[in-house]
Amino acid sequence: MKKTYLIISGIMVLFGSFSCTKLATKNYGQIISSEFTPGPADVAALVGAPYTNWRTLELGRSSNAIWRTNEISADEEVIPQRPNGWVDGGVYRRMHTHKWTADEDNSYQIWTNAYAGITGCNRLLYQIDAGLIPVVASGKAPLEAELKVLRASFYYALIDFFGNVPIVTKFDLPAGFVPTQSSRKEVYDFIISELTTNVPLLSTLNDGTTYGRFNKWAGEALLAKMYLNAGVYTGTPDYANCITACNAVIASGLYSLEANQASVFLQQNQNSKEIIFAIPFDQTYTADGSTAWTLHMETLQPENQATYNFQNSPWGGICAIPQFISTFDPQDSRLASNWVQGQQYTAAGVPLNGSLGAFKDKPLAYINALPGVDSSEEVHGFRLGKYQIVSGELVGMSNDFPLLRYADVLMMKAEASLRSGDAVTAATLVTQVRQRAFTNNPAKAVVTAAQLLSATTVYDYGLNNHLQTTHETVSDIQYGRFLDELGWEFAQEGRRRQDLIRFGVFTKKSWLSHSPNGDYRTLLPIPTSALHTNGNLKQNPGY
After folding, report:
1. How far is residue 473's CA from residue 293's CA, in Å, rounded to a whole number?
2. Model confidence over 79-97: pLDDT tens digits?
3. CA 387/CA 390 separation, integer angstroms
4. Under a CB-based contact definition with an 8 Å cutoff, are residues 115 and 526 in contact?
5. What pLDDT digit, counting tens, does each position of 472-507 carry?
6. Closest CA to 53 of 131, 164, 147
7. Cα separation of 444 and 456, whole Å?
8. What are the beta bridge partners of residue 12?
9. 322, 372 in Cβ contact below 8 A?
10. Is residue 148 within 8 Å of residue 194, measured between CB atoms?
11. CA distance 228 to 239
12. Helix (H, G, I), strand (E, B) or coil at 351
């Protein structure tokens, strides 16, 4: 009798209790399907395989994927040239100045990692339908629904960055098959259909069995994201459905705001009541390589090794753009808690001095100033500290990454309400999110409907570097105050580019060394490698 083998190797999965170890490895090697009847833990392992693609798609070490692309192409953060490097062929400067090409690693990483996730989902769906993975009848529908929602999440990344992309839903394709390209509207309709059909079939639990996986409420939050950006993706906004999806999550009663925003970003944050969908990381299993989350190494200076007793010296790159930092109210606790600033010290409290460039042997004190993307010293720019940095940290962090959280759901509902004419509801929700940031002055947490309707952004847009300083009008940014609120709450969370596009700022305003360089820059170019392997693809306009 011919035996069918399942080849599933090196799966890094989340399963069972996560109170001590959030991740564990399970290597199935070769499994004879006729001798394999998966139990609940096995099903979690099998479905967990394509989830791992979200690590490299969002945050992989030195990977110019979603997080870095969304941040350094926008107005909050930058990777400037440093005394110790960070030139890397000019890629970070090109991302900041919006002069990237189809050969950039950013396009390649997002495209290939998203499609790797899609292929993983298609493979499992095929194996389940073909009986290669024997699943009990009662568990088949929800398992397939989860895989289809996960697949839709990868298409969400593709529609956001590339627009017109191929839709592939089959795994058993003929040799030489190359998919055709779908329009952005067709991709949008496909994602919405997949989500609205399958989200109702997902688990309604919020516990260890669904952590790091799509349950119904994570699916609803993803739906809200799609509807909120429908105007960008299709030209037709859909704020009513965005509000409906947000209301579903709110009404579940399973999530709430943490009393302290920092609790969401602790190293051991897997029990946060605010996280709806997380990408799990654990330095035991994601210590280095393409699956590591290395923000602390990418932002702190080498001398900060003595601050945290790191086993390795940090690399000293990414920092805040001073114009963004200047928008914060000094009493906003997020300014102090999310940004590493001022004089730096050893773990024993001894002041640190710089060791590179013009500030060698001078106090290492991070200041809110930066000459430009082409020039900086060790002291320039506040560093990113939103994700808790702990003593003895390895190259990879153990903080789970909150891709979807409850504050985001509240703010999506607020924005959709504001754009639908209900500024009162919007103001109530924004105030709710702000309250924990102004515990020392509660009156400052209150935002009124009138402020959201009339107040413009406090961001001083314009060039602001050692070569040129300009100031641009901001009265043309509709709901500019709300855009500021998004920046203050969600800085460092890998989303700013998307928000700026929705508010019409991304290709219209200047900051630091960046000047507008074409409206077509709201999309990335399809990577050259993809064009070479698929003759059906047409490059995005402008590239």
Report:
1. 38
2. 999 999 999 999 999 999 9
3. 10
4. no
5. 999 999 999 999 999 999 999 999 999 999 999 999
6. 147
7. 17
8. 25
9. no
10. yes
11. 6
12. strand
